Amino acid sequence: MSRPAPHPDHIPDRLQELLTGAEWAAAAPAPGRWRPLPPATDRPFWESAPADARKALAATLDTVLAQPWTVLPATGFLAYARTGDRETFERLYFARRTRLAAAAVATALHGPRPDLVDEVIDGVWLLCDEAGWCLPAHEREGDDHGPLPDRGRPTLDLFAAETGGLLAWLDVLLGDTLELHAPLVRERMRRTVRERVVEPFLERDDWWWLGLRGEFLNNWTTWIISHVLPCAYACASDTATTAAVTERAVGVLDRYLDCCPPDGACDEGIAYWRRSAASLFESLETLSGACAATFEDAGPEVFSLPLVRALARYPLATHIAGDRYVNFADGPARQPATDAGLLHRYGRRVGDPDLTRHAAAMREGADLFRFDRSPDMSLHRVLAELADTHWHSATADGFPLPAHTVLTGVQVVTARQSAGTTDGFHLAAKGGHNGEPHNHNDVGTFTAALDGVPLLVDAGVETYSRATFSSERYSIWTMRSSWHNAPQVDGHEQAPGSGHAARDVEVYADEDGAGLALDLAATWDEAAGVRSWRRSVRLDRAAGRIVVDDTWDLDRPARDLVLNLMTPQPVTEVPGALLLGDGPVRARLDLGGTAFAVSLDERMLDDPRMTLSWGPVLRRIRLTHPDPGTAGSVRLTLSRLSD
């Protein structure tokens, strides 16, 4: 099959512009033909991985394999519906999958020894015995069976797909070995994957993440598809099924691409990029690799699509310094380097040297070859990283550190004082609206760092609970505008919903500086009485400062007008200013001559997702205006505090 000749004036940006859905289906592999990695019995291949990586990985595998298999009681599943507790059941659920994946990776490192094969057999049998693979928080409610899973009508959520993907990649690695030692185990594994992943994907039209009713798609779509494809290619029993899955998956991925802005921004934030755009990359890698044998040449150039290339660069746009990233939406400010190998592979595929350089810099000083790195760690990501000789030979040459990035699709700007260095100020600011995926009520917020040290920050998000994705979401402090770098009028905070949005937005960057200007009036309910609230946040490169201007026009004189600022740094009040920090990096926040009443709230932290980013405490600075009236303006200026 040859690729269709493109129109000379058209640049394709969707998969079905490269091939029609029917052509993609015709290119799908027959069962058993998809072999993306060698089996564990290919010892020369797996033993060619660097000895230090194999040794480090083996040490953490031993720790995982020393743990007993977990038990998943029905009452544990019910706990979410009863009390809102996600963590207890999920910890047991993920531990079981991590242990099975550890046994599989151990066979790649040491060969399919009988003791390791038995571990795999036990784990596969346990997973197939489970009544369902969907997490309690994602299981539908209101059916006759209540919140428990129904084996006869499985729900295909993120982790049902992830579980199927685990078994599909396990079949790639150990399928022939299982066939030899316990053929019924392999047959049952494949059948269960078909019943819980492949067949529901083809038969159900009601799941929102398919985008069949015009839904706005996010990480769920690509995360699930990145596992559905391997499930079909490894476990389907006939070519008609692999063809049908391929055609449907291509349509779903195109609908996802339709929801992405041309600049590649991820409105779910950097934490979800690794399961949104990164999972798109994995889907395309699987798709193009599986279908390539059908074509007379290299096949459709999926990695040349402009949007696929743009999506790859989001980590560069949001990088501050080291492991710190701009963390708007649900995400920690410190991002682990666990997917650096995937980022390097993505960069190579799209031909972006900045991306491969960024990935190589991530590995410097990082403990990459650990197995117990993340509860949603995919077996495929570990195996692909272990097998990637280009990644093993990559050398670190520092982060690329672009001067600025303007993401008009989500109204975000990020900028540093000087390109190529973390010295000086870094600014990130956002407009947008309060109905975004993983939304926080945070329109007009900004973050600031100096020499890579966080000064004014976004708190992030605590460990998920039932309240996180419910009507109670905005009772959680991290979601509220009063705990972001945002203003508050007479106790009124920003309101949730896409209608509460920035207006008259200007996002800009040039040699002199970068910034954001917008009107925040619509982010409040009408009861706040805000006719106009113009905010401007600007990084002045030459002066080495960040300037925040707020100008308001209200329906009535405000009794209480507060500017909130979040910081992990100690705060010292001096005449006309606040000093942030007590170490070698310190900053002065000049209050522009306004006699604010300054108060400080200390928020003690014990949630691990928060302490990872900020340690034991975050501080909220509340600047209360002495006489706001119906109209007024203030200026805050952040600059380096010299000795």
List strands and helices in order, with pairings.
Blueprint: H1 15-18, H2 21-27, H3 43-46, H4 51-65, H5 74-83, H6 87-110, H7 114-129, H8 158-181, H9 183-203, H10 219-235, H11 239-258, H12 270-273, H13 277-291, H14 306-312, H15 314-318, E1 319-321, E2 324-325, H16 340-350, H17 353-362, H18 379-387, H19 389-393, E3 404-407, E4 412-416, E5 425-430, E6 433-434, E7 446-450, E8 453-456, E9 487-489, E10 497-501, E11 503-509, E12 513-519, E13 530-540, E14 545-558, E15 561-567, E16 571-574, E17 577-580, E18 587-590, E19 597-604, H20 608-614, E20 617-624, E21 629-640
Helix pairs in contact: 2-11, 4-6, 6-7, 6-8, 7-8, 7-9, 8-9, 8-10, 9-10, 10-11, 10-13, 16-17
Describe the structure concisely.
The protein is built from 20 helices and 21 strands. With 643 residues, it is α+β, with helices and mostly antiparallel strands.
Descriptive notes:
The protein has 643 residues and is an alpha+beta fold. The protein has 20 helices and 21 strands. The protein has an 8-stranded antiparallel sheet with strand order 11-12-13-14-21-18-17-16, with no helix packed on it. A 5-stranded antiparallel sheet has the order 3-4-5-7-8, with no helix packed on it. A 4-stranded antiparallel sheet has the order 9-15-20-19, with no helix packed on it. It is globular. The protein starts with 14 loop residues before the first helix and ends with a strand.
